[in-house]
Amino acid sequence: MLRSMITAANTMAQLGQQLNVISNNIANSNTTGFKRRETNFGELLAQQFTNLPNDKATRLTPNGVRYGVGARLAETNLVLAQGALTKTDRALDVALAKEGQFFRVLVQGENGAQEIGYTRSGAFYLTPSAENPNELMLVTSDGHPVLDENNAPILLPEGFKNITISNNGTITAVASDGRVMRRANIGITTILRPQLLQSVGDNIFTLPDLNALNVNEADVAVNMIGNLRNQISMTQGALEQSNVDLGTELTDMMITERSYQLNARAISLSDQMLGLINGIRSS
Fold first, then answer.
1. Largest CA distance in the chain
2. Can you say how many angstroms the Cα of residue 122 is from the centroid of all Cα atoms in its chain?
3. Taking a C-beta distance cutoff of 8 angstroms, is the pair 82, 243 a contact?
4. How far apart are CA 49 and CA 60, in angstroms?
5. Do the beta carbons of residue 8 and residue 267 sit within 8 Å?
6. Sign of CA dihedral 240, 242, 247, 248
């Protein structure tokens, strides 16, 4: 009975983590550029018992009996499937139309130092630059500076008439007389190993310390510069929606809740059987 209770309790803890992942997906179903996560389960440590009778005719299995101790959440994978593009006709709304490509932004790390983050959300805004009041900085909806191909914040002069963003990510500020006031290339990175990305909030990811993992950066992320910018596919006046399918998420939630309920019932029945055993002994 104790074994069955331990097995059920271990599995319930992992199912609770799966519910957290599903709930996060549902909560961000309307978040621009959000990428859902999916979970995979694996078996916990199992024990092999072979001390059964030597008579093969009485053995339950040829190799004995294998007892497990529940399931574990083996991994949580980031799904980079393309979300639907919604037209907004807003000049600073930009959508990436290729999977695996991310905008580079500047974020504050855990130790207070600034580091490069990656996001698919292209809802950009302009805010006055702290260093030069005559310039405007391109930022995300949460105020993170958007970086150019040289990892410098993108600054645009005041007084422009309109902004155009080309298919390969070149942003141009044009004056009322048609003169180009400023031109910059938005920093785009292709992530080759998305499962290394770590969420830091605000729909932004960062990469871990690749040196500690003994991983070459070129095998993980490629900055789209030079001729590589021809591989960028960007649409101005549109936003990429999340790739969350509410129908799938709600179905997975019901299945997980049923599994949680089943394991809770197993603990309840095991407890009742232990109570019966204790009653027999006391009598």
1. 100
2. 16
3. yes
4. 11
5. yes
6. positive
- For 126-177, how does the pLDDT look when each residue is reduced to its tens digit (9 = 90+)? 999 988 888 999 999 999 999 999 999 999 998 899 999 999 999 999 998 8
pTM over cut 0.70: yes
Q: Report the relative pairing of strands 85-87 and 238-240 from DSSP bridges.
A: antiparallel
| 178 token code pair | 């048609």
CA distance 32 to 74: 28
Residue showing tokens 């996060």: 24
Could you give the C-alpha distances from 255 to 15, 109, 117, 242, 250, in angstroms and in order? 10, 37, 35, 23, 9
